[in-house]
Amino acid sequence: MSTIRRVHGDERLGTAFTLYPYAFDATPSPGTEDELRALLPYHRDNTTLVAEEDGRTVATASAFPAQQNLRGNVLPMAGIGWVATQPDARRQGHGSRLMHRLHAELLDSGHLLATLYPFHPAFYERFGYVGLPLNRTATFPPAALAPLLGVELPGQVTQRSIRDGFEDYRAFQRQLMAHRHGYTYTADYRAARALDPANRWLATAVVDGAVVGVLTYHIDGYGGTLRADELLYSTFLGRALLLRFIATHIHQVSSVVVTVAPDEYPESWVTGLTVRTEAEAAFPTSPPLMARLLSVEALRGARCGPGRVEIEVVDDRLLAGRYRLDGTGGAIDIGPGSGTAKTATLTAAGLAGLAYGVLDPAEVVTRGLGEVPDDAVEELRSLLYRLTPHVFGKG
Ligand SMILES: CC(C)(COP(=O)(O)OP(=O)(O)OC[C@H]1O[C@@H](n2cnc3c(N)ncnc32)[C@H](O)[C@@H]1OP(=O)(O)O)[C@@H](O)C(=O)NCCC(=O)NCCS
């Protein structure tokens, strides 16, 4: 039988890190211990667990601390990753035991939400996770934005290395996180991964001294592609300023690729824009993020519609129980359930689907994630109305 323990600092090198190359990289490769050692700072405050048998690390799982906006509340969230088992020890339950232990430790350390990129979504659905919508990529020729070049806009865009603008970039991310459902903000030691290679430009849109949009990007060559990361803005003027800035590359690059939110409609940015907007879900190469609640307390005080309902969460070690969710005061209040009428029975994944706004109560039923009586469908639909999470700021 294996034992599970937490490892810290350099101890990760001889334990958890021994599994990473085989699980996540092209192998065999002549990768050196120095390369792995160089990654240690990016794991500094991770919760790293290892399962050991006779002194050998057979499996590992880890999580980094972050924050995420859930229906208007910014909450401690854990980004789970680096789940790996030695090939000769797979399908013996190591991964599952590590996940249970990790969830418990994360809750103990104050995390109310957890997210991960799944190798195999059905495995994590059993652990209470639900898939969130993928961001899209919009691909278009910069010439398609030419009409914006003639538009007078009250504001400026400056361009500098991400290394020079990192603090401004992070400050704007914090500003967005405060307002956008689903937005994630990772700890500095994780975010520094973007800083160290410094292979991005940062465009910053400013109006009256206030930042209203940022875009990180790189250009892969003359006549090539301007590859932008997430299009982040707080006002539509901010978006217009960034798009007009992209348009200034009209005779320099032949295409632009930019990541946008699932509810962004690039075809409406200017009249007649030629654009392809797409998202591909594929496993394990392009998985949508999955998320779960580590405690029902994650919903306390959340923005909601009117409604009052009792739920019973089943099949989950952390959440199992009866709760009363009351939105009559404009924000969710949570109390113990009494077992009266209007009780919806939900798996943890079903509750996550409602909390994150990605599933309607009727879909919870059709997806096999719960049983919801008709009157409870109406209450839950109003209380936890559909919302599109903006899964930006990933760690
Ligand atoms: C993904 C990975 C970590 C799973 O680890 P694991 O230790 O095999 O996980 P478990 O044993 O708990 O579960 C794996 C499967 O074995 C099954 N299983 C668990 N115990 C079992 C047992 N005693 N007998 C037979 N099957 C068993 C589980 O039900 C699960 O089945 P499923 O695939 O149908 O869902 C491992 O395959 C791996 O390292 N893959 C490469 C890296 C990777 O993809 N990481 C995940 C990133 S999110």
TrEMBL record:
Keyword set includes Cytoplasm: no
CDD domains on file? NAT_SF
Extract the GO molecular function terms from the UniProt entry. acyltransferase activity
Keywords, in A-Z order: Acyltransferase, Transferase
On the tree of life, the source organism's domain of life is Bacteria
| Ranges of residues in domain N-acetyltransferase | 2-154
Q: Which InterPro entries match?
A: Acetyltransferase_Eis, Acyl_CoA_acyltransferase, GNAT_dom, SCP2_sterol-bd_dom_sf
Q: What is this protein called?
A: Enhanced intracellular survival protein Eis
Q: What is the lineage of its organism?
A: Bacteria, Bacillati, Actinomycetota, Actinomycetes, Micromonosporales
